Amino acid sequence: MSASDVMLGTLGLLIVAAAPHGFAAASDQGSGATRLACRMAPPGARIVLAELYSSEGCDSCPPAERRFGAFNPGLELVPVVWHVDYFDSLGWVDRYALPASSQRQKALVAAGGVPAVVTPQVFVDGLAFPAWRDERALRSRLLRQAAQTPTVALVLQGLARDGDHLRFELRAQAAPAAPPIQLQAVLLEGGLVSPVSQGENRGVTLHHEHVVRAVAGPVAGAGPWRAQLALPKPTPAELAVVVWAQDETGRTLNASWARCTL
């Protein structure tokens, strides 16, 4: 057994301690914080970050969102749907668009030498995957990525509601061969319904899952990183927190998640 195997096994034990039986009740973080009951990612797992860049102003995006909507955070992957804001001047302002979505997409495109920034666009662990329309090819790619031995283990804990924010703590432990890492987190909301009256999707009622509503990071280093994510208004009964470690180019090294009842 290598030193990295020992390290990752130790981290698995730490994750189990933080989230017994897949659930965690977050410790209070200040006088206004409320503990949250959360279903956590399996301990020690290699979880693939599957990202879709989309827009309500893009008529080829709804089929891509339906495909991603069929995924759920689980043993092998976590889906994240970023709504970009660069379509907002073309007839319809996407109510879920974030500048951070466009910024991350453009950074991944530049780092990966991808020919263009387009929607819909899919990245698997930070690398462009243009064959995403082929369901078999996409699932095969996701499974191959999930089968890789993780070089970074993540511990997500301290999940609590503090007023209009969700607070958390994240730390990572990397194998000796791992590159310098950055940590990032997003808050996801699903079950969203959006009637569109202008633009390419005029007259269509769109349905969205796994949509990024708030972003924290990236921050350099392995933590512990204590941060917060702004809760959307109105606040739904359940939200997901997705966290990951990436290298300096944005390539994902491992991800984790928690689904919390508010």
Question: Radius of gyration in whole Å, from Cα?
Answer: 18 Å
- Secondary structure class reads alpha+beta
**What are the secondary-structure elements, in order, as H or E?**
HEEEEHEHEEHEEEEEEEEE
Q: Could you estimate the helical fraction of the residues in percent?
A: 10-25%
Q: How can the largest sheet be summarized?
A: 6 strands, antiparallel
Mean pLDDT: 88
Strand content: 35-45%
**Which strand order spans the largest sheet, edge to edge or round the barrel?**
1-3-16-15-10-13
Quaternary state of this entry equals: single chain
Topology of helices and strands:
Elements: H1 3-18, E1 23-25, E2 33-35, E3 37-40, E4 48-54, H2 61-69, E5 77-83, H3 99-112, E6 121-124, E7 127-128, H4 135-146, E8 152-162, E9 165-174, E10 182-189, E11 192-195, E12 205-208, E13 211-220, E14 225-230, E15 238-246, E16 252-261
Parallel strand pairs: 4-5
Antiparallel strand pairs: 1-3, 2-8, 3-16, 4-6, 6-7, 8-9, 9-14, 10-13, 10-15, 11-12, 15-16
